[in-house]
Amino acid sequence: MSVLVQSEHGCVLDSRSLIDQGLARCIRWEHGRQSHVKCRFRSQCFQMFRSHGAAAVDAGHVDMLQKANKPPKKRKRKHSELNQGEIDSQIFHEKIRSVVAEGTKSLLDSSQSLGYLNGAPDTVKEPLPVQECSLAALCEMAKELPLVEDEEQELVQPLVAEGGCTSHVDLFSRVTENRVDRATVVTLMGEEYVIPPHASFLLSDFTRIQPLVHYGRKFDLIVMDPPWENKSVKRSRRYSSLPSSQLKRLPIPLLASTNCLVVTWVTNRPSHLRFVRDELYPHWGIEVVAEWFWVKVTTSGQFVFPLDSAHKKPYEVLVLGRYRPSADLSTSSSETSEVPVEDSRLIVSVPSALHSQKPSLSEVLKRYVGAEASCLELFARSLQPGWTSWGNEVLKFQHTSYFTLTPTDDPADISKVEGKPSVTL
Question: Which of 87, 159, 214, 367 keeps 20 to 30 A from 406, CA to CA?
């Protein structure tokens, strides 16, 4: 099971199990023929055994530590020389510190008493998969192609046509749907990808989001992980960032149903949090209802960074809000059928070692939107069963290099996903 423990503090997630859960039944199309395969996300991606703040004693880390412990070339600032952003970060951290510390301890104690997060042995020695993602560059090239504007032209297409053909699929200007009840391994643009059952997606950037708007669906849950501007992103050049002001151009009112739950991943910069709460959500007519925290731990239950680290924190913030299409944002949940969202809940999990791979929130948010809710992820880098996803790297973590694919003759062999039952406390 993907949700290992639930309590009034929040929950503990097994992120890898949640991915595998949606791929329990999988077929592979090759040269017009299909075969059954067992599909699992690579376990080494979720094997974080040591906290980044722990002292490294093995010889392999000595040289790295010596370099890291050299005095900086620039004079360190005194505490009194903190800039306003750093002061704001300290204030915010002190405000939520006890919630994170106490809630995480309670959830971890419960998990460890059930046999979870007790420091699993390092059994997988394989290196992390490294896949050069060129999807964003392909989106740039696709801008030269004309958009489909003919009202009679289909804006939606099946992933697999008759006979297993995928060469006709236009990923950039039409929403693509996997219309079968099992995951499908297909070749797209010369690369193999694993597409979850009943997943829909559009591969594009801001300038080509119109097919999603014209898709004709209103969503009950919208989750977004914007590419926030920050110094580390600029240095690493892993992906293109987006100025905060540009986020207001997202057509949320055209995509959201009344009382749609909107969830935004926010970095630990207070300016980004203020922007979402005070500018972005009000601009769309969204009422803030809660702030949650994703707490990142190792496989032995330690924070991935010290809780009071001055540089990186072991948590990220999620801002949850309800879309109110009227000008009056005072409508209370008691006047509607919506389930009230509790504040300051924690989501505890071992993070992926792959950059920017967030845990799926589908199981965590189900009770607030209903099991049959129509769900959308914006700026997605992976797909989820039954969800619609949009982004210029929307297939990134669906590439087969991130999975193990084992041929199987009996579909029943892949009808179950390994795991222990979850416990609600």
Answer: 159
